[in-house]
């Protein structure tokens, strides 16, 4: 077996792309999207009909430009998700507008709207993960949504305190961003290369995984945002890994033996102290983690900027 086939024995593989052909090629269980991926795919002529349909929908449902823009963005994301679910047997993650990252009530309303659009296409809730930034407000929104059987994927997760708060809130899944953590430390440490076994992003996911399994948290851990195949192989055994088509192709061409580095049963006896963060503890511990604070803020800004670019691209049509 090649390295990708071996990896699939220990970890659920998810495609991190908006490209349908890549999904058909690599046959992942689930797929994830984000505003940047949707922006890139929406500009591809082969997906023009998905954007056209969303524009027509928004024109008939919205009473003013602002409302039509919001409806159109949601419908584009759902249209991509709907097509993805024709390919993958599992779930698709669809992201809430990053500009709502500090507004619990607005995030809940937007998530309900997205789920409503999927349900109009007879897609059951269990096949959708609503992606929300792992701010305090986003975690509180996810806690409310989970009680309505709206499953959530908490994204832009860089610090352990974010992960612990998500588990306490009963979140379905978290997406720690391995590669972006590596990026920060390479700059901070003035290094061009950090070995995968010493990669701070890899070690962060391992730490979170072990904490969850030690204390019986059912929240799934999905490593995300990889920079190289070494990071992926080091996390063999993680619940899920979401991987770009380029790295999937590399793994498919490799023959390196994969050994599970993460095994749930091995975590039970670990000497770890539990934490029970309230809002003050969460904000303080996040503040004390310069990397997590900076990368969370940067990630929200970047996703928000891509949403604005997508809005500007369709605004004249509305």
Report what the structure shows.
- The protein is α/β, with parallel strands linked by helices and 318 residues long.
- The chain has a single domain (3-315), classed as Alpha-Beta Barrel (TIM Barrel), CATH 3.20.20.70.
- It is built from 14 helices and 8 strands.
- The protein is globular and about 60 Å long.
- The mean pLDDT is 95.
What order do the helices and strands come in, and which of them pair?
Blueprint: H1 3-10, E1 12-16, H2 20-26, E2 30-32, H3 35-42, H4 48-61, H5 65-84, E3 92-95, H6 104-120, E4 128-133, H7 136-146, E5 152-157, H8 160-168, E6 173-176, H9 178-188, H10 200-214, E7 220-223, H11 229-234, E8 240-243, H12 245-253, H13 279-288, H14 290-315
Parallel strand pairs: 1-2, 1-8, 2-3, 3-4, 4-5, 5-6, 6-7, 7-8
Helix pairs in contact: 3-14, 4-5, 5-6, 5-14, 6-7, 8-10, 9-10
What's this, in brief?
The protein is α/β, with parallel strands linked by helices and about 325 residues long. It has 14 helices and eight strands. The relative contact order is 0.15.
Distance between the termini: 51 Å
Describe the strand arrangement of the main beta sheet, using strand numbers: 1-2-3-4-5-6-7-8
Largest sheet geometry:
8 strands, parallel, barrel
**Fraction of residues in H or I helices:** 40-55%
Q: What do we call the CATH topology?
A: TIM Barrel
* Individual helix count: 14
Number of strands: 8
* Gross CATH architecture: Alpha-Beta Barrel
Q: Return the structural class.
A: alpha/beta
Count of domains: 1
Q: Could you report the average pLDDT, rounded to the nearest whole number?
A: 95
Order of helices and strands: HEHEHHHEHEHEHEHHEHEHHH
Beta-strand fraction estimate: 5-15%
Output the CATH class name. Alpha Beta
The CATH homologous superfamily is named: Aldolase class I
Shape: globular
Radius of gyration: 19 Å
Low-confidence stretches: none
């Amino acid at each position: 077996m090649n390295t990708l086939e071996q990896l699939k024995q220990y970890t659920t593989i998810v495609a991190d792309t908006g490209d349908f052909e890549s999904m058909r090629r690599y046959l992942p269980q689930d797929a994830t999207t984000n505003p940047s991926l949707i922006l890139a795919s929406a500009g591809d002529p082969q997906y023009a009909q998905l954007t056209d349909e969303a524009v027509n929908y928004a024109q008939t449902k919205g009473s003013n430009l602002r409302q039509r823009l919001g409806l159109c963005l949601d419908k584009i994301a759902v249209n991509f998700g709907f097509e993805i679910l024709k390919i993958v047997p599992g779930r698709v993650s669809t992201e809430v507008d990053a500009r709502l990252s500090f507004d619990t009530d607005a995030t809940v309303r937007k998530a309900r709207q997205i789920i409503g659009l999927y349900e109009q296409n007879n897609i059951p809730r269990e096949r959708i993960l609503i992606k929300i930034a792992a701010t305090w407000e986003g975690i509180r929104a996810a806690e409310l949504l989970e009680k309505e059987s709206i499953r959530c994927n908490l994204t832009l997760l860089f610090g352990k305190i974010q992960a612990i708060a998500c588990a306490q809130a009963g979140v379905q899944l978290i997406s720690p961003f391995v590669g972006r953590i590596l990026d920060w430390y390479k700059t901070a440490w003035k290094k061009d290369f950090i070995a995968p076994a010493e990669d701070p992003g890899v070690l962060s996911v391992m730490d979170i995984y072990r904490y969850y399994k030690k204390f019986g948290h059912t929240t799934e851990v999905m490593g995300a945002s990889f920079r190289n195949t070494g990071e992926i192989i080091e996390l063999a055994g993680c619940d899920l890994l979401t991987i770009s088509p380029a790295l999937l192709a590399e793994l498919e061409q490799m023959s390196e033996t994969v050994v599970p580095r993460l095994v749930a049963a091995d975590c039970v006896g670990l000497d770890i102290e539990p934490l029970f963060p309230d809002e003050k503890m969460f904000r303080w511990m996040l503040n004390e983690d310069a990397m997590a604070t900076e990368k969370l803020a940067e990630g929200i800004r970047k996703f928000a900027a891509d949403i604005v670019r997508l809005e500007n691209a369709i605004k004249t049509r509305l």
